[in-house]
Sequence to fold (72 residues):
Amino acid sequence: MLPKRIFITGTGTDVGKTVISAALALGLLRRGIKVTYWKPVQAGQPEDAEMVRRICGTTLKIHPKGFTYEMS
Fold:
């Protein structure tokens, strides 16, 4: 039995959080499981939700991000 929610976390940029999130979402979608994606905090560009959408397709529901921070 799968949990209702999976929370991916990691410290730092470019450690693979988005890639793992997209891989999990795609695998679940291919098994016919309803999936939603939410990144509560976005820092910098490009936006991670855009990459997840390209990988998973339009059947994935993506919630709007909560906060955006510009990288300096």
User: Anything to note?
Assistant: The first strand starts at residue 36 and ends at 37.
